[in-house]
Amino acid sequence: MTTLLIAEHNSSVLSSSTLSALTAAQAIGNEIHVLVAGKNIESVANAAARLSGVTKVLCANADAYEYVLAEPMGDLVVHLAASYSHIVAPSNSESKDFMPRVAALLDVGQVSDICAVLSADQFKRPIYAGNAIATVTVLDDKKVITVRASSFDKSTQQNDQACVVEAVDFIADSNLSSWQSDDITESARPDLASASRIVSGGRGVGSGDNFALVEALADKLGAAVGASRAAVDAGFVSNDLQVGQTGKIVAPDLYMAFGISGAIQHLAGMKDSKVIVAVNKDEDAPIFQVADYGLVGDLFDVLPEMTSKL
Amino acid sequence: MKILVGVKRVIDYNVKVRVKADQSNVDLTNVKMAMNPFCEIAVEEAVRLKEAGVASEVIVMSVGTTQSQEQLRNAMALGADRAILVETESDVEPLNVAKAFAAVVEKEQPGLVILGKQSIDSDNNQMGQMLAALTKRPQGTFASKLLIDGGKALVTREIDGGLRTIALTLPAIVTTDLRLNEPRYAKLPDIMKAKRKLLETLPLADLGVTSKAHCRIDKVEAPATRSAGIKVASVDELISKLKDEAKVI
Question: Using only C-alpha atoms, what is the Rg of chain B?
Answer without folding.
Answer: 21
